[in-house]
């Protein structure tokens, strides 16, 4: 007992000042780290979104191997179905997502789909109700569907990924034909890889849009399985443009200049499909993810200039552009 | 007592710095508004897009409602695309008897006004403006 008390003469603790300094340093470190932690979540979602787009582009490459040199049909619209297109096959109303099913391991869905029937007919519509993971960007609404409440007969899954349909409108009107500069995907037309003469690493393949209206049938953006919904994106509007998308149907809040939706997904009515145009849009801060035809995936800032964006989307424009 | 003061100053300085790091606005877009008519009639519903004539800036624009529009545009020389419609009734979504319907619109502007290469409308944006009006004609003379 007495020995212990006699040896503990110089027991030294921390002074208040030292403690305060340590706490201050830890505080500073946390202050530096906290914003990084918050960003890490979005960075992870972005990485997953990038991966989905990469897989879709690789699936397209497998399609290019299976049907030598042909990209999948972008979409088939309603007139005179089924219609034969350049690659020799006939299609009814459909979009490219269905044609990529065998290559993203959704063979079961593809086997139960009848290519001679439009997408809204039985048994096709049942296959379109499966919310395949590869449809969705995790930064937006994963698993979004139109839902049986909105439309008991024809509801289907929605999605974020859209194909590059070039520098004009969804369907080209007469005024567009003269200036169309080629793209991997088209409505009523299929294109060959060899027609991408700007080079596959310089031409966009897929990008993303925001699902405008889940559990409803009042807006085209996100209705990726409908040829008249949003199978593609075009270059007239730059990514996340303040200029509205031109759709057959817009939800009211996306047309209301005072509503929050108008700032992220502005929309106006296009009375026919030859005036429809849809910009690439995303919930990622500052821009959108774009995959190129060679399989690389890039993040493109929303401040990209009109000429570069148009050059990247065109397949045979001959523009000397490089994504920043 | 000198070190705690030093420490608090440091903490204050760092937190001030991190406030300065928060993200700013998207771009240098300015607010432009005005009236849009076709043959003197106001356009019911549609949009105005300002596409950079030299391709140097992103595309900006806004909606037309009852003849007036509000747009956000980066300054510069612009070609102006206009799309105008009017409500005419209802139409079916699918080619089936029990198909749901949607509002049917009819286009009132010629397609030339909505094509970058053909539109005769131009604008030079240098700052915010509230009287940038566009008068369209049904018989458009396309620029070529």
Description of the molecule:
The complex is a heterodimer of chains A (324) and B (144). Chain A is of the alpha+beta class. Chain A contains nine helices and eleven strands. In chain A, the strands form four sheets. A five-stranded mixed beta sheet of chain A has the order 7-5-6-10-11, with helices on one face. A two-stranded antiparallel sheet of chain A has the order 1-4. In chain A, strand 2 and strand 3 (90-91) form a beta hairpin. Chain A is globular and about 95 Å long. Chain A starts with a helix and ends in an 11-residue tail after the last helix. The model of chain A has no long low-confidence stretch (mean pLDDT 91). With 144 residues, chain B is mainly beta. Chain B has one domain (27-136): Carboxypeptidase-like, regulatory domain (Immunoglobulin-like, Sandwich), CATH 2.60.40. Helices cover 13% and strands 43% of the residues of chain B. Chain B has one helix and nine strands; from the N terminus they run αβββββββββ. Chain B is extended. Classes of the chains: A alpha+beta (324), B mainly beta (144). The interface between A and B is large, with 59 and 63 residues.
Gross morphology of chain B is: extended
C-alpha termini separation of chain A: 76 Å
Structural class of chain B: mainly beta
Which structural category fits the helices and strands of chain A?
A: alpha+beta
Largest interface chains and counts: A-B, 59 and 63 residues
Using the 3D structure, state the CATH architecture of chain B. Sandwich
Calculate the mean pLDDT score of chain B and round it. 83
**Total tally of structural domains of chain A:** 1
Gist of the model:
The complex is a heterodimer of chains A (324) and B (144). By secondary structure, chain A is an alpha+beta fold.
Secondary structure: elements and pairs:
The complex is a heterodimer of chains A (324) and B (144).
Chain A: H1 2-7, H2 16-66, E1 75-76, E2 83-84, E3 90-91, E4 94-95, H3 96-100, H4 107-111, H5 124-128, E5 161-164, H6 174-177, E6 204-208, E7 232-233, E8 245-247, H7 252-255, H8 260-264, E9 267-269, E10 287-292, E11 297-301, H9 306-313
Parallel strand pairs in A: 5-7, 8-9
Antiparallel strand pairs in A: 1-4, 2-3, 5-6, 6-10, 10-11
Chain B: H1 2-20, E1 30-38, E2 41-42, E3 45-52, E4 60-65, E5 68-73, E6 76-92, E7 101-107, E8 122-125, E9 134-136
């Amino acid at each position: 007992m007495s020995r212990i008390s006699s040896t503990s003469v110089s027991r030294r603790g921390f002074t208040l000042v030292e403690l305060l300094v340590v706490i201050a340093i830890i505080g500073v470190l946390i202050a530096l780290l906290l914003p990084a932690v918050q960003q890490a979540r979005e960075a992870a979602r972005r990485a997953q979104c990038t991966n989905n787009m990469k897989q879709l582009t690789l699936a397209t490459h497998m399609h290019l191997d299976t049907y030598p040199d042909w990209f999948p049909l972008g979409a088939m619209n309603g007139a005179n179905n089924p219609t034969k297109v350049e690659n020799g096959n006939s299609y009814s109303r459909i979009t490219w997502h269905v044609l990529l099913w065998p290559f993203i391991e959704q063979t079961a869905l593809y086997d139960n789909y009848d290519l001679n029937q439009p997408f809204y007919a039985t048994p096709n519509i049942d296959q379109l109700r499966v919310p395949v993971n590869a449809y969705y960007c995790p930064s937006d609404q994963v698993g979004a569907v139109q839902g049986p409440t909105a439309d008991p007969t024809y509801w289907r899954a929605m999605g974020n990924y859209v194909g590059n349909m070039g520098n004009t409108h969804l369907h080209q009107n007469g005024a567009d034909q003269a200036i169309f500069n080629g793209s991997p995907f088209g409505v009523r037309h299929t294109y060959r890889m060899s027609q991408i003469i700007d080079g596959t690493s310089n031409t966009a393949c897929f990008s993303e849009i925001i699902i405008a209206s889940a559990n409803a049938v009042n807006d085209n953006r996100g209705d990726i399985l409908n040829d008249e919904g949003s199978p593609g994106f075009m270059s007239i509007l730059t990514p996340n443009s303040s200029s509205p998308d031109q759709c057959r149907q817009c939800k009211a809040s996306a047309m209301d200049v005072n509503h929050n939706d108008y700032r992220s997904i502005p929309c106006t009515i296009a009375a026919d499909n030859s005036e429809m145009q849809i910009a690439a849009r995303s919930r990622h801060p500052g821009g959108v993810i774009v995959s190129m035809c060679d399989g690389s995936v890039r993040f493109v800032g929303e401040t990209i200039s009109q000429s570069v964006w148009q050059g990247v989307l065109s397949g045979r424009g001959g523009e000397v552009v490089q994504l920043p | 007592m000198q070190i705690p003061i030093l420490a608090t100053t440091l903490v204050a300085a760092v937190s001030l710095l991190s406030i300065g790091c928060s993200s700013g606005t998207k771009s240098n877009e300015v607010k432009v508004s005005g009236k849009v008519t076709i043959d003197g009639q106001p356009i019911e519903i549609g949009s105005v897009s300002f596409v950079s004539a030299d391709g140097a800036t992103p595309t900006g624009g806004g909606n037309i409602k009852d003849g007036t529009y509000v747009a956000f545009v980066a300054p510069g020389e612009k070609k102006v695309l206009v799309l105008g419609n009017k409500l005419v009734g209802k139409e079916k979504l699918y080619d089936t008897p029990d198909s749901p319907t949607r509002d049917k619109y009819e286009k009132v502007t010629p397609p030339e006004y909505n094509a970058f290469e053909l539109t005769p409308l131009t604008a030079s944006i240098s700052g915010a403006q509230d009287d940038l009006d566009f008068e369209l004609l049904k018989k458009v003379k396309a620029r070529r």
